Amino acid sequence: MPITAFLERNARLWPEDVALVERNPADQPDATLSWREYSLIQSTSSRKYRREMTWREFDNRANRFGNLLLSRGIRRGDKVALLLMNCLDWLPLYFGILKTGAVAVPMNFRFSAEEIAYCADLADVDVLVFGPEFVDRIREVRAGMRVRTYFFVRDGEAVVPDFAEDCLSLLRYCSADPPPVELSDEDDAAIYFSSGTTGFPKAILHAHDALMASAETEQAHHGQTKDDVFLCIPPLYHTGAKMHWFGSLLTGGRAVILRGVKPEWILRAASEEGATIVWLLVPWAQDILDGIESGKLSLSDYRLDQWRLMHIGAQPVPPSLVRRWLRVFPHHAYDTNYGLSESIGPGAVHLGVENIEKVGAIGVPGCGWEVRIVDEKGTPVRQGEVGELCLRGRGVMRRYYKNPEATAEVLTPDGWLRTGDMARTDEAGFIYLVDRKKDVIISGGENIYPVQIEDYLRAHEKVSDVGVIGLPDARLGEITCAVIQLKEGATATAEEMDEFCLGLPRYKRPKKIIFDKIPRNPTGKIQKNALREKYGAVRLVEAETTG
Fold it and tell me: Where is the domain boundary, 214, 240, 269?
């Protein structure tokens, strides 16, 4: 069954229930304002701090956009790209694309002009739907793109550029009846792009059945009900946020789209909207804890008793972070989710809320998934040995679009996806992520896994974030370098960190300490390539810094 059927069902069963809420915290009213004063501001402002949409409105808008696309000659298999910041219209436009049988192509809102052009060409994009933040970038490269139609999603007083049409205005003249297109589970549904942390991204093609499998897996793992409220913070162009929300779609639960990641914005949204489920990235969870522990945030200012589940994915989660979180929020269920865009996002492996004593593991095979760990020859390794994590299930991608060579490198003939992540299992079958295969440091013949060192250093009271990379060395091949981001206001020396690392085996101790900010992409993954480019050629000595 296509995922669009659940949107149509929700519109029938709960037409007047709120499906989506958008919050713009940068425009959030001061807490001292009366409701009358706040309402006056909202009525005279072109940009709304809070907007909402019912299930009927959601489905109608998706239908209208689908019919607009059909009127412009878009047909099954054509590609329609979305280049938008998180907003109330994102998901209705996405579902409108799916309803036509066209392929939705979400784009990273951090793409440069060059990357927009590259990805549009790679995915054979016919229509580009974009917001005001991207006008200049698109204008710069538009002449060289094959895109034939541009739809502009107006925000506030933004002016429609001369090369585009006003999307939301056009929808008023389109039918709200479902587009007359019959979908099958085997139809192509979406192209997502790899994170691009090692260069230009690859285009990942998924079928409708993969989207449905992701929804079923998510709901099985976290038990969403109609009464749950999902606070959605990560970017919707990525599989993670959307596929977690799919669990709410299956049960008709409400979602709150938060445009901003400041700790106080997250807590206030959870409090005022009654959020029961929040998916965080590691940096956001760290910032919330740092704010609470430093006294900058007071839990007494928020109503959070209803918040039942906090879960994290997208990158390795330091066990020390989870222990800190549960000390502050002891009533929370906690889950770690593992997946890739190639496996339609989170859920291929999950810890399970009942397995909190196994914090540090990424978990066990997710609902509907098979997992194995293999050596270089593809032979399963023994328990405790490190090998490459492989996945098989309905959520595995069809292929890298227009890239058969890359597809052959990661997809086996019998349907296994080689993830590039190194992992091991314990005696109970729980899987522990060791590191990315490409990030393994080989120093003097020893394999060193940066994640293990990063987890250790994050336990230091002054450390906010850390990334470990290999630097070239004439004698050892590589040496281990720890780039450390200190907490705000903290000071430390390289010698202090060296002493702290005496608790590590000698060969794992960083040979070099650098203090700097840790670059992360929008899904929270450390951009190791940026650190390598910055420090791989130039050897720096930083004795002391202030965070």
Answer: 214
pLDDT by residue (tens digit) across 471-515?
Answer: 887 666 688 999 999 998 899 999 999 999 998 878 789 999 999
Q: Which residues, 6 or more positions from 425, have their beta carbon under 8 angstroms from its beta carbon?
A: 373, 383, 384, 431, 432
For 117, the domain range is: 4-8+50-214
For the chain, the distance separating the N- and C-terminal CA atoms, rounded to the nearest angstrom, is 52
The total number of structural domains in the chain stands at: 3
Per-residue burial over 403-436, b = 16 or more CB atoms within 10 Å of its CB, e = otherwise:
eeeebeebbeeeebbbbbbbbbbeeeebbbbbbb
> Tens digit of pLDDT for each residue in 511-538?
999 999 998 876 667 888 788 888 874 4
Residues 475 and 519 in one domain: yes
Do the Cβ atoms of 69 and 102 come closer than 8 Å?
yes
Whether the per-residue pLDDT at 41 is higher than 70: the answer is no
* Distances from the Cα of 528 to the Cα of 44, 197, 397, 481, angstroms: 46, 7, 25, 12
Mean pLDDT of the chain: 88
